[in-house]
Amino acid sequence: MKIRVLFAVCLLVPGISAASSASDWQMKEMTPDLENLPSLQEGFRLYVNYCIGCHSLKYQRYERTVDDLGISHDIALQNLIFTGQKIGELMTSAMDPEQAKSWFGAPPPDLTMVARVRDPAWIYNYLQTFYVDETRPFGVNNKVFPNAGMPHVLTDLQGVQSCAPVSGGGETGEAAHCELVVDGNGLYSVEEYDQATYDIANFLFYVGDPSRLERHRLGVYVLLFLVVLYVLTFLLGREYNKEVL
Questions:
Q1: What is the reported pLDDT for 107?
Q2: Is residue 130 a contact partner of residue 219, using CB atoms and an 8 Å limit?
Q3: Beta strand pairing call for 161-165 and 140-142
Q4: How far from chain centre, in Å, is Cα 79?
Q5: How far apart are CA 158 and CA 128, in angstroms?
Q6: What is the 3-state secondary structure of the chain?
Q7: Which residues of 60-79 are buried (b: 16+ CB within 10 A; e: fewer)?
Q8: pLDDT 10s digits, 198-244
Q9: Residue 6 has pLDDT above 60, yes or no
Q10: Are 120 and 150 a contacting pair, CB within 8 Å?
Q11: Which residues contact 200 (CB under 8 A, 6 or more apart)?
């Protein structure tokens, strides 16, 4: 695995930005699936390889995460924890906040709650819409969050994406008048990269509320209990009515 320890700025919430304008990008649909453990596991793997060097999940513990996702502690310690932390510790970044502030203008934000502040579809589309823009400090811009002050650290997976002019549109690079075109030199195919961005968004959806799936499962039992209770109450009421009548 490739480990991004210092400059692995994951793409989900801009650390700094110029005066950002509202996006008119047509969002692709994305439906999270907390029952899909392979997706959550892969999203976790991608996160610790490309994101946690800069972006922490400081309200989430490694142990809770691997237990929920069905990963053994030994595998997690060998392949998913690169910071020397113990498995019971919170998922914090190795980046020093003061140094990050001098590099980026502001420390990269914690992403524990990003899927609740935004939503998973926003994350999913954000990860897919970086394109080359030489006018920006990091050489890239973003369709979903224009003028995002972040590099595209998944370039090796996706390949270089450019903003090609469309018929009747403006000049190359104008976000409102171009379409995204990938050069095909990434490690992943278009379909594989699409799945990777889904997995990261799905994982962050889980992190935003780890007990969500447990609550949903418990809710089914509660509703079944209420149904049974209603039937018993109805039958008991019918017996009382017989005595009254």
A1: 76
A2: no
A3: unpaired
A4: 20
A5: 8
A6: CCCCCCCCCCCCCCCCECCCCCCCCCCCCCCCCCCCHHHHHHHHHHHHHHCCCCCCEEEEEHHHHHHHCCCCHHHHHHHCCCCCCCCCCEECCCCCHHHHHHHHCCCCCCCCCHHHHCCHHHHHHHHHCEEECCCCCCCEEECCCCCECCCCCCHHHHCCEEEEECCCCCCCCCHHHEEEEECCCCCCCHHHHHHHHHHHHHHHHHHHCCCHHHHHHHHHHHHHHHHHHHHHHHHHHHHHHHHHC
A7: bbbebbbebbebeeeebeee
A8: 999 999 999 999 998 888 888 889 999 999 999 999 888 888 887 77
A9: no
A10: no
A11: 10, 12, 43, 46, 47, 51, 123, 127
Q: Look up residue 124 and give its two tokens.
A: 């999913």
Tokens of 95: 């980046």
2, two tokens: 């490739």
User: Domains of the chain (ranges plus CATH)?
Assistant: 37-210 (1.10.760.10)
Spatial CB neighbours of 75, under 8 Å, sequence gap ≥ 6: 66
Contact 70, 37 (CB under 8 A): yes
Task: Judge whether residue 4 has pLDDT over 50.
Answer: no
- Tokens 């650290």 correspond to what residue? 153
Pull the structure tokens for residue 87.
């498995």
- Separation between Cα atoms, residue 166 and residue 178, nearest integer Å: 5
Instruction: Classify each residue of 118-128 as buried b or exposed e, where b means 16 or more C-beta atoms within 10 Å of its C-beta.
Output: bbbbbbbbbbb
Give this prediction's pTM.
Answer: 0.79
> What pLDDT shows up at residue 174?
54
Cβ contacts of 40 within 8 Å, gap of 6 or more: 34, 69, 199, 202, 203, 206
